[in-house]
Amino acid sequence: QGGGSAVIDMENMDDTSGSSFEDMGEMHQRMKEEEEEEAEGEAGAGEEEDGEFLGMKGLRGQLGRQVADQMWQVGKRQASRAFSLYANIDILRPYFDVEPVQVRARLLESMIPVKMINFPQKIAGELYGPLMLVFTLVAILLHGMKTSDTIIREGTLMGTAIGTCFGYWLGVSSFMYFLAYLCNAQITMVQMLSLLGYGLFGHCITLFVTYNIHFHSLFYIFWLVVGGLSTLRMVAVLVSRTVGHTQRLILCGTLAALHMLFLLYLHFAYHKVVEGILDTLEGPNMPPFQRVARDIPVVSNAVLNTTAKGIALTL
Amino acid sequence: FPGLADVSISQDIPVEGEITVPVGSHSPDEDYSTLDEPVKDTIMRDLKAVGKKFVHVMYPRKSSALLRDWDLWGPLVLCVSLALMLQGGSADSKDDGGPQFAEVFVIIWFGAVVITLNSKLLGGTISFFQSLCVLGYCVLPLTVAMLVCRLVLLAGAGTISFIIRLIVVGAMFAWSTLASTAFLADSQPPNRKALVVYPIFLFYFVISWMILTFTPQ
């Protein structure tokens, strides 16, 4: 009615929404009427039956219903917790959904570098193939260690083989995923595991051949050709998913270096070095690999002794 | 007792019920009746079950007895005997040239668990312990191969003995793989059998490799 009033008069507001005050008032009244009707109905029914104090029965029934409800909730919660514990295996189920033809196709594809690096290449997020390849690598490594008479004192052959292969697969995958996160590459953890796992196919072939045919030049040819092809494939796929020259360089350089160096390490650490074919390592320096079986504590003891002697001399 | 004369039950609330103890019908309940038998009977029954499964492994036929009543006694006995026989294959007494007892044990059980998980993830219908049971029992041919290898090595360790051992271990390895495949591959969808057979092949290959490269000193 006058300007300058600070109070908003709600009654004059044109509010067409359903939650206006008038409507709320109406709804409230309607609900109260319904309750009264229900109470009347119950009371009426109660009067008809003899000897039953309906009020008490209503309360007891409600209490019983509540208790039963609570028990059901608790039971349901326990069952769902137990189920989620079991269902953890079902989290991995979609990653094992493959056919043998698909596995074979992916194994062959892992040796063929792709040409198109301008749009992202598809990586299958599958874990069966990589897992089987890691186990195969473990088996080949065991064979190589045994034929080279490697003696490992502070561990076991089996433990070393499993630790090396799984450590490489899981560790390098995690490291590359971290780098990919830093370099803004579009790749998920499962895809990275899958890519690196299939890259081990080249390693398996190389080691299988060269652990049985001991020619150094043959190993270097295999290292460059087979190792190089699988590295090129992984690098091409990563490049297609990364933007920016520096990032591409970082990612691909790291992956190529780790992949090729791992193959080199597997060959030289667990393989018998035949003396006559040491042409690449001969020179004025002492060759780093002895012809006897690798005996780690002796070396460490020798190092300790020389260090102690050196310290004693300087003192 | 005058005080008790007032004890009365209100007429409104009826008290009724039955105070009868249901006498259990004498149904042939096996669990109840085997408690009274002598220990020899229990042991003989278990041994016969284990022996029957051994026969099933040596002559693999499509019978479901191995799967239905699974037990882990046989695999335990086989695993322990194989691990004991693989002891002492080292160059020095302090050296770890051969597999230790714990190593063999862990490899067999860990490998069996991995294969079981793999077959379950690939959509297999067999249960966890049934699969463990089958894989454990199928180690029997390789244990026999280990016995034969030790006997051959008593005679000497030359090239001929190596060839004999290679043939024996190879044959037993093929037998093990075929026996376990006959039981396990049936529970898979038909186009994925190769995916399940390959890890079994690897598993028995590793065990055969351990047996073949065993050289007692």
Automatic annotation (TrEMBL), chain A:
Where is the protein situated, by its record's location annotation?
Cell membrane; Cytoplasm; Golgi apparatus, cis-Golgi network membrane
Q: Which InterPro entries match?
A: tRNA_Mod/Golgi_Maint
In what way does this protein cross or attach to the membrane?
Answer: Multi-pass membrane protein
Hey, what's the signal peptide range on this chain? none
Where do the record's region annotations for Disordered lie? 1-51
Per the record, where are the segments of Acidic residues compositional bias? Answer: 34-51
The transmembrane residues are 127-145, 157-183, 195-214, 220-240, 249-270
An annotated GO BP = cell differentiation
> Got a GO cellular component term for this one?
plasma membrane
Q: Which UniProt keywords apply?
A: Cell membrane, Cytoplasm, Differentiation, Glycoprotein, Golgi apparatus, Membrane, Transmembrane, Transmembrane helix
Q: Which family does it belong to?
A: Belongs to the YIP1 family.
Task performed by this protein:
Involved in the maintenance of the Golgi structure. May play a role in hematopoiesis.
Matches recorded under PANTHER family: NATURAL KILLER CELL-SPECIFIC ANTIGEN KLIP1 (PTHR15627), PROTEIN YIPF3 (PTHR15627:SF14)
What name has this protein been given in UniProt? Protein YIPF3
Native organism is: Platysteira castanea
TrEMBL record, chain B:
List residues traversing the bilayer.
70-89, 101-122, 134-156, 162-184, 196-215
Keyword check for Transmembrane: yes
Q: Which domain of life is it from?
A: Eukaryota
Instruction: Tell where it localizes.
Output: Golgi apparatus membrane; Membrane
Q: What is its main location?
A: Golgi
User: What membrane topology is given?
Assistant: Multi-pass membrane protein
The chain positions of domain Yip1 read: 57-210
What's one GO BP annotation on this UniProt entry? endoplasmic reticulum to Golgi vesicle-mediated transport
Q: Which GO terms describe its cellular component?
A: Golgi membrane; trans-Golgi network
Q: Which UniProt keywords apply?
A: Membrane, Transmembrane, Transmembrane helix
> Member of which family?
Belongs to the YIP1 family.
**What name goes with this protein?**
Protein YIPF
What is the originating organism of this protein?
Answer: Platysteira castanea
